[in-house]
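Page 47, continued from p. 46.
Same chain as before, 68 aa.
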Amino acid sequence: MKRIALIAFILGILMATVAYVAELNEWTASPEFMTIGFAGYVLIISAAAYYMTAILYDWSRETEVWQG
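Result:
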């Protein structure tokens, strides 16, 4: 799952970058690229949320071992 989240994060960065370049260069298909950029932001946020949740889960397991 971590590999999928990493791929989603990288793909999201690429999609957001393409949307940013499209906005700077005022390409004619700008609304389509803005949609792609929004999807990229969603991928970035989702991957970051997964990693933060995984880190919290690992930290919570470590404290149980210490208390045991």
